[in-house]
Amino acid sequence: MSDNRRSQKVTQGNQRSPNRAMLRAVGFGDNDFNKPIVGLANGYSTITPCNMGINTLALRAETALKEAGAMPQMFGTITISDGISMGTEGMKYSLVSRDVIADSIETVCNGQSMDAVLAIGGCDKNMPGAMLAIARLNIPAIFVYGGTIKPGKHNGEDLTVVSSFEAVGKFSAGKIDKAELDAIEHKACPGAGSCGGMFTANTMSSAFEAMGMSLPYSSTMAAEDEEKAESTEKSAFALVEAVKNQILPSQILTRKAFENAITVIMAVGGSTNSVLHLLAIANTIGVELTIDDFETIRQRVPVICNLKPSGKYVTVNLHNAGGIPQVMKMLLAHDLLHGDALTVTGKTIAELLADIPENPPADQDVIRQWDNPVYAEGHLAILKGNLAKEGSVAKISGVKNPVITGSAIVFESEEECLSAILDGEIKAGDIIVVRYEGPQGGPGMREMLAPTSAIIGAGLGDSVGLITDGRFSGGTYGMVVGHVAPEAAVGGTIALVKEGDSITIDARQKLLQLNVDDAELAKRHSQWQPRQPKYTRGVLGKYAKLVSTSSLGAVTDLNLHN
Fold first, then answer.
1. pLDDT in tens, 413-437
2. Which residues are catalytic?
3. Phi, psi of 193 (to 5 degrees)
């Protein structure tokens, strides 16, 4: 078969003369119509520092694709800045943007009969959005990460955007003055790149490297370093080889690849959002993966990287210590990775890691030695119970006491919750409940970085719990439980909680329990009425109608035939 097996539908034969005429106008010559056409999905924008350096990388990839014998066709795709929309109604569009990105890449690549796709993204939803499209398309593909931001510096400390969110809580609690708040704001984000800790963007880039859909080391490179551009160029050449050899995403994104990704996410202390995104991608590619698989893997994988938000270091430090290949080699050496899993390079994981030492450098503590982990088990716990029959996700890193029972303080939105925290209304022992923020009820499953950072900033991180059917930023830590399912909007138990009810969060027992008897809950449920949807038109209206439960990844194309 030829390398242009899909695009020849629009480039070959007399009847396609008009099609070729259009292509000539964008740079095709007589010798180009037999070359594979590679879609170059460019996530560039000046909306966020995460994406503002991407166009330079896209142009480098475009040149490399031509050198490798392909014909690139560049197109744009959107992004939403979680950090900028955080705490506002605009955050409802964040998770939605994942599916808009997936839809847009799928639409262009299938609409133009492209032979392959190279996607470049930076901000949180770019990566899972691109991978959902890659899974749907199942054409040769590679993901290129735009790169991480370098840390800001203040009083000898590394800063990330989360430093600024936490400073708001400290300022509200009277722990810092306005001058300190302003200083952190000015220094937190010094240039281009995605948020600098092991937050969602760096978690997903690490996961995709672990899955073999990105080149080794590429997931932890700084956006502004020359090696990032060089890696982008190498990615373009690797993709053209994958086209020649017809290495397809369905051969790479196997059950073994997903298990490898989850294992790496646990080892690096990654974001809760990875649970949602990997479930969605697995669903799309047709791999059986459940929320319970994360708990199974968590129990056998230690956290070996000391990274923010709860740890000390940022992602550029991880890169300098050996990056994801070093982490993966340690896991492989202890039989926790599938070394025979295929990568986009055509090599297996084990082959790619062959020359990596089994132990990290002794003169650093970003990646801990195997016998000295940060935590003996993974940090993303799946809790179930009458409050979360389908499951919920707790990030238990940085928590001194993983068990808390307290009285419910109920909020019907994130804004109400944040106001109460900043006004000093939340006390030690309280369990905050933020509901009607789920995929359907929000709609859009907003992240709660503002409230959780305010709790940490106020010094209540070890004494206050927070549960929600919404999400958490990758920058969140503390006794917080998100993705509670079923969500309030569909009558999940979280909708039945009353002020003052006793709630238990027990990460040891993997329990999220409303301490109210079944008869009382049945009575409350019989009296419960669903809310009228806030959005009935536009993208949020469509999303609320289509989106699945979070325990299935909040996908928008599930059971459309029903």
1. 999 999 999 899 999 999 999 999 9
2. 473
3. 125, 160
